[in-house]
Amino acid sequence: SQQGEEDPQALSIQEGENATMNCSYKTSINNLQWYRQNSGRGLVHLILIRSNEREKHSGRLRVTLDTSKKSSSLLITASRAADTASYFCARYVNNDMRFGAGTRLTVKP
Amino acid sequence: NAGVTQTPKFQVLKTGQSMTLQCAQDMNHNSMYWYRQDPGMGLRLIYYSASEGTTDKGEVPNGYNVSRLNKREFSLRLESAAPSQTSVYFCASRTDSPYGYTFGSGTRLTVV
Question: What is the distance in angstroms between the Cα of A108 and the nearest Cα belonging to chain B?
Answer without folding.
Answer: 22
